[in-house]
Amino acid sequence: MERELQVLWAAIVAYVLGGVLAIFGVALGRRQGRVVLGLLLAGLLLHTASLALRWQRLDHGPFITLFEILSSNVWSLMLVFLIAYWRIPKIRPSAAVVMPVMFVLMGWLMLAHPGEGHFPPTYRTPWLFIHIGMAKVFLGATLVALGIAGVVLLRRYGIAEGRFAALPDDRRLDELAYRFMALALIFDTLMLITGAIWAQDAWGRYWAWDPLETWSFVTWLLLAFAIHLRVTYRPLPVRNAWMIVAVFVLAFLTFFGVPFVSESPHKGAV
Amino acid sequence: MQQPPVIDPGLQQTLASGGSTPPVFLRGAAWLGSLKLTLALLVLLVPAIVLAYNSEAWRSWPLAVPLTGLAFNLLAALTSNPAFRRQTALIVFHLALVALLLLIAAGRMSYLKGTLELTEGAWFEGGALTSTDTARWHAGDLDQVRFTNLGFTIDYAPGIRRDATRNRVGWIDERGRMRESTIGDQHPLVVEGYRFYTSFNKGFAPTFTFTPTGGKAVLGAVHLPSYPIHEYEQTREWSLPGTRRMLWILLDFDETILDPAQPSAFRMPSDYRVIVRDGAERWELRPGAAIDLPEGRLELVGLRSWMGYNVFYDWTLPWLAATAALAVLSLGWHFAGKFRRKAWDA
Ligand code: HEM
């Protein structure tokens, strides 16, 4: 366990360095794309190693305890964000918005108890990976959209305009954020479908309004609402950006709030 | 070829401010199919969900109202909104949503949920359940289902945490042949569309033969409360078959079945006694021992296990899965088409 935690610490240090550098880059109006990319990638590789060590030791994936769920989500969110960061250089400064959100999750992770949990028999199915995989892509896409929306909002309210000023205009960013919201809707839909299939197998019903099901359904509806709002009223980018913040907050609460306060069997962490 | 008349929201405003008035049904369709109504109905769905979440009694009409509204809204939009005309994938996606609603509604009107308990070696037949919740138009044939519990094993991790359940079952298939398989956890037994799931509800069943004076012996099993949840209440009142005599049955053993300190498994105790009480009288029985009661002779045959099953029937399941798959594929198709035109990093 020691080794795995040391590697995790090293990963977090790399993530934090990359994030801090990205924030300074924006604040000071400098370009740091490659260094940040390198640090975040190093963090991701170390993190992967730490997860693999734990997986090997416990013989099950990081899906059970709060510690594991936070860790695997930090990993998947960093992975999705890193892909966007690498493939869409224009939006790189949005790391200054995304990384503080990640710092919150990382801080929480460092406080969580790294002890092991019981792997329930209902988790011995490929649906575990499919369902959780879809959920992770969904949240990742929402995070990238949040980063872009954050740039629009910060620019609008005159905060840290330095490097942000060089980014594409609001309309272009809005369009890009919308693409990630569309991706989020697709993967959220897949998450709900695969979750229902799994629930039918594991608990003999595909839907029962348990807290996590209900919250994720409301999140899905809010996504549909946000997308419709856009095609109906063509709101200004700033309004769309606020909508994205709302979707992210709701998704975040669904992922990291509900499972840990509810008493139902569907905790994401039993 | 002449295009059918189309009304879009922009045109609607022009019309409202003085153009010639379109036929009433077209105006109706434009209003009913308006995207603003969609937004309003989506908002209305939220309190309905809060109600459904908080109470089982509020899971039908509060949801049905906004959902029916959305279905009509959508069908009207399909006829009146030009956006749909141009985008086939979008139409397929939205139609799949309506189909999902219809299927869910059909499922809600014809499902069956229930529970039953089966002693090891006993058959489920005749369709009698311990508890049921049957929809009004349930059309399945539970009477036709026959299966038998051939015994189970359940592993427990340290801390008495339930692990894999493996339950051997035998059943009669459509051709009347006997089949066998192992169910448990993710794997229900599916017969005639009924899905039987093992549950955490299971335990010990002292088994007796009762031979009424001058009559034929019958076998009876007493399902003691679920183990290990009710570890210290392994007792139950039991009415002697065919009589009005109530006996009080208790299973007594000293050995540890499930060890909190190490991995263990659900099994029968190897050394046990069954205590039978009838008012002030009390007997301690070992397997093979018998007592004489005014109504006849009661012999303890031994100890078996019993398993509690959840039953679920919903013929819409495969259709729901297919429709949901269609919905998500067409959603992907719609966005792929839309975003392909311009690079992400343009
Ligand atoms: C909760 C269920 C619904 C979901 C998840 C949903 C989702 C979507 C999505 C993803 C789009 C594509 C937007 C785009 O291409 O940018 C869309 C467009 C559209 N939706 Fe829905 N929708 C839902 C319900 C409805 C309903 C009830 C109506 C009925 C009016 C409707 C009418 C439309 C129309 C007309 C468009 C095309 C808008 C345009 O391109 O101008 N949708 N919807």
What is the mean predicted local confidence, pLDDT of chain B? 91
Main β-sheet of chain B: number of strands, strand sense, barrel status?
A: 7 strands, antiparallel
Q: How many strands appear in the DSSP assignment of chain B?
A: 16
**Termini separation of chain B (Å)?**
40 Å
Question: Mean pLDDT across all residues of chain A, rounded?
Answer: 92
List the uncertain runs of chain B.
1-19
Helix content of chain A: over 70%
- Radius of gyration of chain B, rounded? 30 Å
What small molecules accompany the polymer chains? protoporphyrin IX containing FE
What order do the SSEs of chain B take from the amino end to the carboxyl end, as H and E?
Answer: HHHHHHEEEEEEEEEEEEEEEEH
How does the overall form of chain B come out from the CA principal axes? elongated
- What does the overall shape of chain A look like? flat
| Uncertain residue ranges of chain A | none
Element pattern of chain A in H and E: HHHHHHHHHH
* Count of helical stretches of chain A: 10
- What oligomeric arrangement do these chains adopt? heterodimer
Tell me the layout of helices and strands:
The complex is a heterodimer of chains A (270) and B (346).
Chain A: H1 2-28, H2 33-58, H3 66-87, H4 95-111, H5 126-156, H6 161-164, H7 170-203, H8 211-233, H9 237-256, H10 258-261
Chain B: H1 9-16, H2 24-32, H3 35-54, H4 61-80, H5 82-86, H6 88-110, E1 112-119, E2 123-124, E3 131-134, E4 147-157, E5 161-172, E6 178-183, E7 189-191, E8 194-212, E9 218-221, E10 235-239, E11 246-252, E12 264-265, E13 273-278, E14 281-285, E15 290-293, E16 296-313, H7 317-340
Antiparallel strand pairs in B: 1-3, 1-16, 2-4, 4-5, 4-12, 5-6, 7-8, 8-9, 8-16, 10-11, 11-13, 13-14, 15-16
The complex binds protoporphyrin IX containing FE.
Protoporphyrin IX containing FE sits between chains B (33, 35, 38, 70, 73-74, 77, 81, 83-84, 90, 94, 97, 334, 338) and A (185, 224, 227-228, 231).
